[in-house]
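Incident log entry.

Two folding requests arrived from the same account within the same minute. Monitoring flagged them as a possible duplicate submission, but the sequences differ. Recording both here for audit purposes.

Request one:
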Amino acid sequence: MNWQLLPQFAISGLLAGGPIALMGLGLVLIFKASYIFNFAHGQLLLIGTLLTWWLAVEIALPLWLSILLALALSALLGLVIERLALRPMTGQPLLAIILMTLALGQVLQGVALLLFGSTQRNFPQIFSAANPYKIVTPFLYNERNITIILKQNLVWSFVAAILGVLLIGAFFRFTRTGLAMRGASEDHELAQSIGLRIHRIFGISWALAGVVAATGGILLATSSGLDLSLSILVLAAFPAVLLGGLESIPGVIIGGLIIGLSQGVVSASKVQLIRNASEIMPYLVLMLVLILRPEGLFGQKRIERV
């Protein structure tokens, strides 16, 4: 382990966990409302980010306006997906609906390739790349204090991501629509019997998931650039969601931070083989936690009559 670089990589990894938590939140939104796992989330993220780039670069709109329009279009895309693809699947086996989300992901990936191509693009900078933040720690290495250098886009992406997760959490906890979405996820038939409009709730959840996905993609693209492989980055959110608990919004925050921290710590290793394992580290952490606690750290234990 490179002890001099360990604080740098650990803090950077922890900050990278913020966007991972935000991506995982989109998965939690769909699961809490409809009890299905959305495998098209990465492609929703990609489409929203590409729309932002197109509006800001090709159409030359102000960046803030491009982001707002892209978020609105992403919400509309979520509504269209729910209405045309998933609503006809109501009452079908859960596996069939999951396969539908897989098919949607491939269709959206193909649409992105046809409309935008596979070229690597430089995403407009939202946060300044100059003047990074410096933190001098009280820890010593070779009789010198260790200095941690953090890029502004990494810090502010983390802040924006965590604020987004907290806002959605407050929406579920304190608004009637959020409470209705939580109730609908427990029992669809019971929710309909007390007057909840299930299809409206599903539409709202998919619209919110589209907005959250686009926001996460924008934050990621500011540091990693933009190409079709951006949709693959959402794979890191799957372990974060399962680690924290499929129905837990606080859990997705903790899960995202743990995944980011684990990747950062592994990257500080001097052994090249271990450093290259940073991409599989989230799944190793996930396996360990699920062996000890299958429902995740903050998941609900369900007792069902067989």
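Request two (distinct sequence, not a duplicate):
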Amino acid sequence: MPLKDTALMLMTGERMQWLTQRQRVLAQNVANANTPGYNAQDLRALDFRATLRETQSNLRLSSADGESFAAGNNTDAYRVSRNRYPYEVTPDENGVILEEQVMKLNQTQGDYQLATQIFRKYGQLYGLALGQNQNS
């Protein structure tokens, strides 16, 4: 099985795609910090169990003649949730709190760095198991 098709790599890739989309949404919040009536948005949390079920259903099956059958990968359906009642608003009813958005951006960046380190370390372990020498 190729390294990219392992469950850990598929789930880490899904997490990285979710984090990338969240970074876009949070950046949009910061860009609209002075827009009257704008409320901050965020993505719904990524459901680990649903991701695990989807990853397990994406296993490739091979037929006797060498053809493989693959299930689809639905990564375009991250739903944006709005903060319906922000606890702090400006006089023009803008619900973006810059400090909160910066904290979320930093958390997202840290989570993305963790996911890339998981990718790298798992690749090194995979190479070690195959007897390849990897320096880094």
